[in-house]
Design goal:
about 425 residues, 16 helices
C-alpha cells in the first residue's frame, strides 16, 4: 500500500502538471478561452458515454494487468504529445484527438486504480485506504500545479508532457510487485464456463447488471442525489468564490490565490480526517453536505475577505470528509464482482453534474447575484437533505403494540393454537 500510494502521488502530480500545461498550450495555439474549455470537455466527454463499458471491463479483466496496461497507454499518449510539441507539429485537431483518447483510456484506468488500492488492505481498512487516496490526490494536485510553471519555465512545454509519461510508466512498473494484505477482499476470478452458460454469463458481466443494481439500491440512489445537488449548487468554489472575491469583496487575483490555497489546505486536512472513518454511511455524507451548505450561506454573507478566509477552511474540510465518506460507501456497498460497473455508472452520472453544474450555477448567479447564488444554493442543499432525512424517518415503520382484550389469546398460547 505504501508503494501504491507513492506511485499514485507521482502519477497525480504528473497528471495535474499536464492538465495545467495543456490549458496554457491551447491558449498559446488559439488565444481563445473558449477553446481551452472545449479541450477540457473533449477529455471529459468519454466518461459520459464509455464509462459503463469501462466499468464492465474492469470487472471482467484481471485488475493488476488492467492497471498496468492502461497506465502504459496513458504514458504513450503523453510521450506522443511531448514529441509533437517538441517538433512543433501540434495543432488543435491533434490535441483534441489526443485528449479524447486520454479520456477513453481513463474510463477504464480510473475504476481499476481505485479498486486495486482497496485490494491491498484488509476489508476493515478500506475506508482508511480511500482517505489516503484522497490525501494523495490533493497533495499531487498541489505539487503538479506548482511544478507545471517551473518545468515550462526551465525546460519547456514538451518536458512537462514527457514528465507525465514517465509518471505513468513508474506506476506500471510498480504494479507487478503489489501484493494484497492478509484479510483483503480477493478479486473475483472468471472461471471457464460451458457452452450452455456462455450467453447468460455474458449478460451477467454486461453493463445492464451494474445499472440495475445501482437503480435498485436505495443507498446508492440517495448518495447520487446528495452528491448531485451538492455538486450543482455548491462546491464550484473556483467559480463562485472567484466572483465573490473579485466583485463584492473588492479583492484581486492575489486575494483569490490566497482563498484557493486555504481551500487546498482544507482539502488535505479533510482527507486526513476522512481516513479515520471506520463505517461511513450515506447519512454521514448527507449531514456533512448539509453542514457545508450552511457554511456556504455564511460565506455568501461575508462582510470582508478576512471573514471569508475563516469560513473557507471548514468548508473545504467538510467537503473533503464528505467526498471521502461517499467514495467509501460507493466502493464498499456493491458486491466485489459488480464494483467496476457501479463505478462506471457513477462516473457517467458525475460527468453529467460536471458538465451541467457550472452553467446552471452561472444562470443562478446572473439571476440572484454572487451572494444570492451562494446563499440560495446553500439553503437549497441543506433544505433538500433535511427534507430527505425527515421523509426517511417517517417511512420507517415502528412496531405497533395492541392492547389485549378479555378472552384474547396472546404469546405462546396463541402460537400453540395456531400450530
Amino acid at each position: 500500500m505504501r508503494w501504491w500510494s507513492v506511485a499514485n502521488l507521482v502519477s497525480n502530480a504528473g497528471t495535474w502538471m499536464q492538465l495545467t500545461v495543456q490549458n496554457l498550450l491551447v491558449l498559446q495555439i488559439t488565444g481563445s478561452a473558449a477553446a481551452t474549455g472545449l479541450s477540457m470537455s473533449v477529455q471529459a466527454a468519454p466518461a459520459l458515454f464509455v464509462s459503463l463499458l469501462g466499468g464492465a471491463a474492469v470487472d471482467r479483466w484481471p485488475r493488476k494487468l488492467t492497471v498496468a496496461v492502461s497506465q502504459a497507454l496513458l504514458g504513450a499518449v503523453a510521450f506522443t504529445t511531448a514529441l509533437l510539441v517538441a517538433l512543433d507539429r501540434i495543432d488543435m485537431p491533434a490535441l483534441m484527438v489526443l485528449a479524447a483518447v486520454t479520456g477513453v483510456i481513463a474510463t477504464v484506468d480510473g475504476p481499476a486504480c481505485a479498486l486495486l488500492g482497496n485490494d491491498l488492505v484488509p476489508v476493515e481498512d478500506v475506508p482508511s485506504a480511500i482517505g489516503v487516496g484522497a490525501l494523495v490526490h490533493s497533495a499531487g494536485r498541489l505539487t503538479g500545479t506548482a511544478l507545471a510553471g517551473v518545468t515550462v519555465g526551465f525546460l519547456g512545454t514538451s518536458a512537462a508532457y514527457a514528465a507525465n509519461g514517465l509518471s505513468f510508466l513508474f506506476v506500471a512498473a510498480v504494479v507487478p510487485f503489489l501484493r494484497p494484505a492478509p484479510g483483503a477482499v480477493q478479486e473475483p476470478v472468471s472461471e471457464p464456463v460451458s457452452a450452455e452458460r456462455a450467453a447468460p454469463d455474458r449478460v451477467e458481466m454486461g453493463v445492464r447488471q451494474g445499472l440495475a443494481f445501482f437503480a435498485r439500491r436505495p443507498r446508492l440512489v440517495a448518495l447520487a442525489a446528495v452528491t448531485g445537488i451538492s455538486s450543482v449548487f455548491g462546491r464550484n468554489y473556483g467559480l463562485t468564490l472567484a466572483v465573490l472575491v473579485t466583485g463584492p469583496l473588492a479583492g484581486g487575483a492575489g486575494a483569490f490565490g490566497t482563498v484557493s490555497t486555504v481551500l487546498a489546505v482544507g482539502g488535505i486536512l479533510g482527507a486526513v480526517l476522512g481516513a479515520r472513518l471506520r463505517r461511513p454511511s450515506v447519512r454521514t455524507v448527507g449531514l456533512l453536505a448539509a453542514a457545508g451548505g450552511l457554511l456556504q450561506v455564511a460565506a455568501g454573507l461575508s462582510p470582508s475577505l478576512a471573514v471569508l478566509l475563516v469560513l473557507v477552511l471548514p468548508m473545504a474540510v467538510v467537503e473533503s470528509v464528505s467526498d471521502t465518506a461517499g467514495t467509501a460507501v460507493l466502493q464498499t456497498d456493491p458486491p466485489p464482482h459488480l464494483r467496476g460497473r457501479v463505478l462506471g455508472v457513477w462516473s457517467s452520472v458525475g460527468t453529467v453534474w460536471g458538465l451541467g453544474g457550472p452553467p446552471a450555477l452561472g444562470l443562478l448567479m446572473e439571476w440572484a447575484g454572487t451572494r444570492g447564488a451562494l446563499v440560495a444554493g446553500g439553503l437549497l442543499i441543506a433544505g433538500a437533505i433535511g427534507t430527505g432525512l425527515l421523509a426517511r424517518r417517517r417511512t420507517v415503520r415502528a412496531p405497533v403494540t395492541l392492547s389485549a382484550k378479555e378472552g384474547d389469546m396472546t404469546g405462546r398460547v396463541a402460537l400453540g393454537t395456531a400450530a
